[in-house]
Design a protein that fits this description.
Elements (H helix, E strand, L loop, with lengths): L14 H12 L3 H8 L3 H9 L6 H11 L3 H6 L10 H7 L4 H19 L6 H7 L4 H7 L3 H26 L3 H12 L4 H19 L4 H24 L9 H21 L6 H10 L10
């Protein structure tokens, strides 16, 4: 039976914002706070992005570490903590510019993915990560710059995840199965990633300045597929007559189209059906079920 202290607190739309405010008032970085309360930094980061709910005991620990009331964090009714002047705060508890930039980028990424590029203002990004619009503009001169770096952020996350998945694979064929699994929009983070990628495509159609970045990132993903198919061939799992580049073209086009159908809800397409269709794309050349 779940104890009271392990249950999630009542829903609070602004809980992440108030936690960020408390962190700033205490002069802590997110990593420092995670260390003080014994929480995984990644879990704390997800909670502050709104992709993970904080439990009551975690909220209580945060309140104690930051010197604020749990009532303030959960309800926002207690007095807001006083933020010291920026220069004084930074002298006493210096926060690396890179870490501050990452906090802003995380907030921008989630907001753009969930609200849509044109529905997010710089002030929304600032409010979400508990900083000023001037600070956001310092790190990202324009909203396009934030969108660009958000895509780079997700591209790096995809590369890291693939590296981890491939490291656990037993063969090239197993890597291909894992590659398909990584592309499925199964979790909230997966859906955010796909949403932002699709929005970047849309903006690139309207603004040619975004196309080089879009082309470079997409080419990197395409090369992963091509190299993996060549690896399958080297291990004797790919039929000799297979045209690797044509197969990669067909596969990547299917990935994009099927994921867009799921996110848009334009068909009855779902992750399980998407998985089956992607595996079926290789059936004439490679038995992924074997």
């Amino acid at each position: 039976m779940t104890s009271v202290e392990d249950r999630p607190p009542a829903p609070a739309a602004d809980l992440p914002t108030r936690v960020r405010t408390a962190i700033r008032a205490a002069g802590l970085s997110q990593r420092e706070l995670a260390g003080r309360i014994g929480m995984d930094p990644t879990a704390l980061s997800k909670a502050l992005r709104g992709t993970r709910r904080l439990r009551a005991r975690e909220v209580a620990a945060i309140a104690k570490a930051c010197g604020v009331s749990t009532v303030y964090l959960t309800e926002g009714t207690a007095p807001e903590p006083v933020l010291p002047p920026r220069n004084e705060r930074d002298r006493a508890h210096p926060v690396a510019a890179r870490e501050r930039r990452d906090q802003i980028l995380e907030a921008a990424t989630v907001l753009i993915a969930r609200r849509g590029y044109h529905n997010v203002r710089v002030s929304d990004i600032a409010r979400s990560c508990g900083t000023s619009t001037a600070t956001v503009h310092y790190h990202f001169p324009s909203k396009d710059a934030a969108l660009h770096d958000a895509l780079e952020h997700y591209a790096q996350r995809l590369r890291t995840r693939l590296r981890e998945e491939f490291g656990r694979a037993s063969s090239a064929r197993d890597k291909l199965r894992r590659l398909i699994e990584v592309q499925l929009p199964l979790t909230g983070d997966d859906i955010d990633e796909w949403s932002l990628w699709i929005q970047f495509w849309n903006q690139a159609m309207l603004d040619p300045r975004l196309r080089p970045a879009q082309r470079r990132i997409y080419s990197g993903w395409y090369e992963v597929v091509v190299e993996l198919l060549h690896e399958c061939g080297a291990e004797g799992d790919l039929a000799p007559e297979a045209d690797v580049e044509a197969l990669a073209d067909r596969f990547t086009a299917m990935v994009d189209g099927l994921a867009m159908q799921i996110l848009a809800g334009s068909t009855s397409m779902g992750p399980d059906r998407m998985r089956s269709l992607l595996m079926g794309a290789f059936e004439p050349y490679l038995d992924l079920l074997g």
